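Appendix B.2, paired examples.
Example (i):
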Amino acid sequence: MEELYAIISELTKKYTGGDSTSVPYEVAEQLAEAVCYCIDEIWDHHGGLVPGNQEVRGVYEAGRQKVLHKVVEGQQLYSEIMKDFDAYGNRTLRETITDGMPKFFLYYDADYNPQDHLLTLDYPILQPLEELRGIDRILAYLTCIDLEQRFMKSFPRQYVLNVVRNYHQSYPVLIVNLPAILLRNLLAHLLLRHPLWKMELTSDDYENLAELIQRQGRDNLELTLYYHLQTLTDPSKQLFQYLKSALPDIAAEFTNGAQHTCLERMV
């Protein structure tokens, strides 16, 4: 613990330009969290403590270098995403990625506040990131955005636009996950054994879909969707694992829609 306090004291002195080791409580707490965040990059634990037989300073320095490496990795991933980025007209997605993300890399403080991810990340993704902070959260978020972009770009742009427009005419201003909308539509077509290019479903299609869903039941339906998703994402296991998290909600929505004859509002 003494070595940990010594590192925090040294960081505090650097923060004040060498003038003092006395700072407001909020700043002291921030700097202590900064040190613990870097240590946590090396050790998977809680509370900011490391095993007694390990040199804390070495762990901290290794963690700090790992943070800096992740920043570079995040910048490279973001650059790759932006080469062909498409928000498909959705304002929240565009503002989060094209407007907000550059500000993160501009203002991120890897030395004194690496635990702060700065952005609210308003565009919703399918993977929960609440347990992640700082560059870890941003890097995970960008990885999800990259997977989403790859998935949507595997279909013609106009096809994706038609699907999201059919979902809701006001989709440009909605805070919604676009691949989830697209996936819901694709899975409905696969359940009906319809070609994907057949955009409009008839009243008979919705009746058949409702009957099929009710006949399978909630659990069997999710299993069926699971196998259909495999065909859609093959051979990308990473994309499959990401989109798989949407299946429980889609199965529940389909089941509820079939029971209350409102599937046309979902697909």
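Example (ii):
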Amino acid sequence: MTAPLEFSTLCNFRDLGGWRTDDGRAVARGRLYRSDSLAKLAGDDLARFAALGVRTVIDLRYPWEIADRGRAPESLDVTWHNLSIEHRTYVQADIDPDVDPWRYLADRYAEVAEDGVVELRRAVEVIAHDAHPLVFHCASGKDRTGLLAALVLALLGVGTDQIAADFARTEHATGRLVAEWRDRNGGATPRWPAYGRAPEALIRLVLAELTAAHGSVHGYVTGRLGVAEETIAALRARLLTDDEKPHDGDTTLWQAR
């Protein structure tokens, strides 16, 4: 696995490269990244980020989140797309501790998959056709980002076990995500004790239900989202390689020092 790049301002940034596809290819490294909010980038991290060569950013947050907390710094000189895929607001820190949290969140992901079809379609199209390294992110890089990452990896032919492993790597950032929430909320503690969690079970449930409803993730993307087969072919041509070493399972994030 590529040696980690350390950021002091981001806690959930990683390369989606290295995962092996079912047909023996691999996702190329250095082309597609996922992250928590790039609005936090500052200081020396700006140069570290610039060294990646990222020229395009997809911001999955609501416009009001961007107005409140900012967008990717202008100094990065990137093409910036705001594609807010979530249309029904909820406060994750306030989830009832007595409900099944993964069932609850799977239902929220299902709402995104249903409501955000225009934005999700556009996100897939941008990723497929952009010629430069690209990063997509939301606030924590966990839910909206996790869903889009799962869809893209599935379209590339990565199996469910590896998609779930990538999703669960956010668990190594949970402590930092909770700390950031506390800092924003005067030192309070989230009502939901699992705030910041991203277990494999959650994304497995989401993918299983998309498959049950649409036959496969591919069926959901081409049917409900309306993504053209030519776009999926372009996605695979851009992001797959025969030369990449397989992912070694290292769960180290490119996260805060």
